[in-house]
Fold:
Amino acid sequence: MKTWILYLAALLIGSIHTQSLIGQSKYESEVKPQGIVFPRLTTSQQNSLSAIKGQCIYNIDTNELNCYNGLDWVTATTNTSTQNITLSGQLSDSDFDTKIQVEEFADEDKIRFDIEGTEVLSLEKNMNDVFRINYKGQYDNLIIGDQAGANITPFNVSGQLESRYNTIIGSFAAGNSTTVGKSNTLIGHASGSSLNGIGNTFVGASAGSANVVSNTGNNNTFIGRFAGGFTQSGGGNTFIGTSSGIGNATGNVNVNIGDNSGASSVASFGSVSIGGSAASNVSNGNFSSVIIGYEAGQNGQTLARNVIIGAQAGKAFPTTNFIEGNVVLGNEAGYSLNGSNNVFIGNQAGYSEQGNNKLYIEGSNSLNPLIYGEFDNDLVKVNGTLHISETAKLTPLTTVPMCTSAEEGLIYFKASDRTLQICKGALGWKEVLTN
Structure:
């Protein structure tokens, strides 16, 4: 009783104090049998007060009871129009199944978030005093972002759990059409938007997005904006870089590293393309080729079983149909590549060569390389002086080779009489005289 008397006395004193400050009776505190009427102030009037901790007023702008906590004015009333109900340590809807609560148990020091009767999130510290966000349930899926994972379907028609273990983070269709995907990690705006595969990791805006059709590929790793963007069913691919492997639809077990690397290939298999725009315009596919270097092996419709290493090595022509079995090593080596089964070694070696079965070993774009060969004709030419430090062996021939002006200077060892013969053009073969 003493407490109430003191409280009422304080209100009366506060009323007198308020009236003396403002001079209008509607701002007075009033004690009536029906309840207490707090001073009625606008927000501006409230903020102009020299308030003390614990002082309360009724804000006629917001229609709320506000109290000063020593630092700020805070709302002390409940807005029943939105059916939010405040209980001790809890903010809930009218049926109490969706709520935010603190300290469900005594001194728990945890904030819990429940939706439709299920706790989905809690904010807490671990046993080592480290803050963590505990995201619960959801069939082991973590989904964050506007429209992200909007169509996740945990169970199929037979009741088997299908879509789980997914981490989907990103806005506007990140994993939006995913229904039965499992064990996928999708991070970025629209990444994996149509994915329904297993074990994929997509990082980057629109990575592995597939756009119109469903992507059922498995075990792909796409990192970069639009990386693997149109993949439909290919699996086991690793694409790193902006638009790397963007055109891949059905290709499998390929590695593309670098912006636009392997960008146009639709159905490659077992290929490696490393470097900005490496094999970027190979439209049909790249099969079991290793392409390394900026714009290396950039063009052509189909590459197969090539090893091309060097900046712009084997760059080729966009209209080239099929290029296979080439070994090209060196900066701009085989730059105009248009054939198969060639070996070009050295800076710009075979730069202009467009044929097949050629050997170039050279340090420039010369048409007369230091060493030239033709694999289909078993021919090797040395455009320079040949030094042999020990011995050279000529295999004895039983059949006499052709000797014309074109072969003048050719030598061979004649098996029948064990003599060394030299071609003198129109004079035919002559024995090389020895002491």
